[in-house]
Structure prediction request, 246 residues.
Amino acid sequence: MIVEDLTGIQPGRCIGGTRGLTMLIWHFSTVPVIGQHPLLQSKIGSFVLNIVTVCTGNICRSPLAEQLLSNRFAELDVNVSSAGTRARAGMPMTSETVALAVARGVNREKALRHRSASLIPSTLSGIDLAIAMSREHRRQIVETQPSLTRTTFTARELARLLDSVGDTDLHSAMATAGSDPRHRLSLALSRIASLRGLVTPLATPEDDDIIDPYGRSRRTYDIAAAQLDSTIAPVERLIRLALGGN
Prediction:
């Protein structure tokens, strides 16, 4: 058998016999599939609800959102991850973002451990709610995984729409799902999505975006964090309702 192009094995090298076949099988089993996050995927499978936050580089807005939400859901069966539409894999959060996270109660070591990840189809596998930092990020999420159209919102859009629907309305929307959190959240998000175009229109569409602070002043970072702050409590309220809270 001729190996034509395998990482770590010279092209054209012959591998014969039982031992050679065994080595080849072992090689394939240990080479990671490009674009997959096996640890993330196994983690997603172990949680009741899974949320992903998305920005561009996954070093400012989306990891801050991820860590703030993770703090809110620390005692709940909820996993929050993040990704970037043009991320360079393995990059840490900017120092400004780390400082903002720590100031909001995130453990400093946890903030420093963050490493960026790219938004790819497998990132969205098993996701119940995708939270984009801008309308452009939302578009890219939906293009990557069209089935998430009604479960993907920008952070500010989701908070804005949630302001227009009360707990009673959400409970009513979730009633047919019984006690299944994923189904309850899906029905709630469908109800929320149905409000698009019906609530008071924004002064400008940009008001649904969180400003990108990367490469800009500390004041811009503060503005972005303040915009994000206003979205965290509404998302927490929604998730707790989906999990059966009042």
Remarks:
- The mean pLDDT is 85.
- Residues 38-242 form a domain with the Rossmann fold fold (CATH 3.40.50.2300).
- The chain has ten helices and four strands.
